[in-house]
Design a protein that fits this description.
Length: 504
Amino acid sequence: MSDNTFQNLGISPKILSILERLNFVVPTPIQTQAIPVALAGQDLIGIAQTGTGKTLAFGVPILQKLFREQQKVSLVILPTRELALQVDEFFKKLGASCQLKTAVLIGGANIRQQMIHLRRRPNIIIATPGRLIDHLGQKTVHLNDVGILVLDEADRMLDMGFAPQIKQILTSVPKDRQTMLFSATMPDGIVKIANDYMRLPVRVEVAPAGSATANVTHEIFFVHKPNKLDLLAEILNQYKGTVLIFSRTKFGAKKIAAAIRNMHHTAVEIHSDRSLNQRLAALRGFKKGEYRILVATDIAARGLDVSNIELVVNFDLPEQLEDYVHRIGRTGRAEATGHAISFATPEQRSDVKSIERLIKQELPVSPLPAHLPQVVMTQAVRQPSHGRNRQPNRPGKFNKPNNFGPKKFKSFSDKPSFPGQRRDHKQFGQTNARPAHQARPGQFKNKFSPKKDYQGSQEPKLFADDLGNYLPSREAKPRHGRPGGQRPFNRRGAKNFRNKKRAY
């Protein structure tokens, strides 16, 4: 008998019989390394690629500890509703013979029904961070009896902005607990969580963070954006199996799914605009084969277990380049082979290079079909970056090539004219800023005292408001968004000034 079996991991005979009935024979590398550590009661950080069986890696220790300590509750936190429902389905299969009770707390579902499940004192609570915080605020759930806390897809939860909710949950559970954290990458946020809320965690790393699945082959097309749908039609005619297509936006997913249906293929889409029941029906139909093609945003890039996906198409490159690894991980699961095709525009060559550095391999570029316009790969022109981008030969605070901020006027005649100012371009080509009404020396005091302009003149600068009254402007250094630094007058201020009252 081979040494790589579940019998050598310290699992109880009762659970081994359950695994054998569910056809779990050979453990994956993450299961081989993580299950003995978790059964010993130690805190665990598991770093593994998506689709490597992390759910079973924490499911078996939870089930075995529940057999020993019936009073304790296990809490599993996941980033998305679909992943939470998938984990709940797995636990129901795993604990069908022992009457295991679970409660799923996710957004978009009936909260009153969730309260009914909580009153039945479930053994395992499976929740997304936002809905769990809602129940904590309403005091419908208490975490005093939590013995095991699992944070699955922790890096994804941090990317989605759940860091404050995770910290609140970690402070609500007892300190005397076992914490298991599973992630595909190891960002700084996870390191901070491990240092602050875990007790000497054992790190189990099956593959380096960000590495791609070895069973998946890669291919990339450089194509102009208007020709992407035509290229997709060629690819769908070439591949006859199930296809998962990723779009960057939900509007793009709608458009792509509609176009595919017009190509006489069965397709369905999932994105954040669809209700929970619609998303579940789409996934159920895709798993059963009712739909050959599933178009999705990155909501489906993590943890969804759909077997036998032949092809993954990145119609748009992901916004977070690390998500490329999770997207292509939907194919090539459970030792099967898969293929990933990506579309990139000529302007995205730098993003392609970043992906190649991340996965530590080169993406082979394939030629476009003959009937599509070919892309000419010319030398890339460096685009100016955002922010204060100055050129070395153009010094000065306001002399920026991208015209950010106000322009520094060389003379008063260069300033923009206001209503009421007279121009005589034919004779002088300058603005005559002195109207018929002449300001008397000493007329303006305090805030309205004349100040020097850029040419050193002592004359007050006047401009007209909407009522046709010439009012003094406060001379100041140019500020962003207000050329010349003039302080605007409202109607009430203009009326007060006309009545010889202070305008401010």
